[in-house]
Amino acid sequence: MIEGSPLRADAQRNRARILDAAEAIFAEFGTRASTEEVARRAGVAIGTVFRHFPTKDDLLAAIMKRLLAQLVEEAGKRDLFTFFTHLVAQAAAKKTVVDLLAGSGVDIRLPDAVGHLEEAVGRLLEQARAAGAVADSVRLPETMALLTSLCQGALHGGWDQQLQARTLTVVFAGLKRD
Amino acid sequence: MIEGSPLRADAQRNRARILDAAEAIFAEFGTRASTEEVARRAGVAIGTVFRHFPTKDDLLAAIMKRLLAQLVEEAGKRDLFTFFTHLVAQAAAKKTVVDLLAGSGVDIRLPDAVGHLEEAVGRLLEQARAAGAVADSVRLPETMALLTSLCQGALHGGWDQQLQARTLTVVFAGLKRD
DNA sequence: TATCAAAGTGAGTCTCCACTCATTATTCTC
DNA sequence: GAGAATAATGAGTGGAGACTCACTTTGATA
């Protein structure tokens, strides 16, 4: 990544505001929400949004990168099961991550960021396996597949707490022995 | 449902063509595909589509009703695990069902049709439980939740055959004992 | 086969939204 | 603080797509 000249103070402030607004708007209404809406929430003119992020996809890519980084950080602090549980619980509040993990509609490539998340989950998986909490036969691909599936399910299905718990119980049982 | 006067022969023919075309187009490109595209595939003018289905959502509701009915029928011929496997395998080819099960974006109510599918899966679940193939503690809500999650995951993630199998293995193990 | 209601047609309307750019405002540097 | 560089502004453009309607065609009925 190449560093350009440092941003002017107002530009830095606005860039941050736009990212926050975009995260909130897209989380609430999904990625179909308009860029205009984001600008309004950020208290900024539409042109400013496009100065910082030349296309809507660039904007989406930026917030998703940020969200993924957060996930990676979170993964570092938890065990596999807790991470799953937490992510699923948050899914409904984070349409964006889910849309990204799902690759739904939006044309975005974030191989690095996604790769980092996979690595983080990979570490959790190894730990869990080492502790005997997960069967040896379970590999990373299906673990990621389950993670993304459950997030999408929880999000779109609007699962309540109980349903989240019941569903995760089944999946965890499957991870422990299969 | 109130029966109007019977459709004229050409109207019946076109209605069927439109439904087939819509199913194919939406399966291939998702529900974002345009009504114009559907009309073209059906070999019919755009106005004809809108005569039969006054809004795009009406069209979507119609094909989803048909697809759900097919699923219910299929559920009647299989055991729970086979049904899961088959549905997941088909998910990638049927963006539409998944979009429906997910309720993503489109504003459609099909409580009846969805209810029938739940009933069908409920029967499969009971059979599986009776045969000792599924743990007693497993209930219908989480079974449906897993079903829809996996479909969405498989669809959006573009799972290959191996990943489908591996992921289902974990889930099936979880259903057997938890 | 003559009639006419039902159905088909497709150019056109309308709305929404991503994106532009000439102009104005703010920061930075000396 | 003046001048230059950078950023913000927001009315405007273009294109896509859902939906309409005046007119033409077709199928059912007598």
TrEMBL record, chains A, B:
A single GO molecular function term of this UniProt record: DNA-binding transcription factor activity
Domain HTH tetR-type: 12-71
Source taxon at top rank: Bacteria
UniProt KW Zinc-finger keyword: no
Gene3D superfamilies membership: Tetracycline Repressor, domain 2 (1.10.357.10)
Signal peptide: none
Annotated region of DNA binding: 34-53
UniProt-listed InterPro entries: Homeodomain-like_sf (IPR009057), HTH-type_TetR-like_transc_reg (IPR050109), HTH_TetR (IPR001647), Tet_transcr_reg_TetR-rel_C_sf (IPR036271), TetR_SbtR-like_C (IPR049445)
UniProt keyword list: DNA-binding, Transcription, Transcription regulation
Protein name per UniProt: TetR family transcriptional regulator
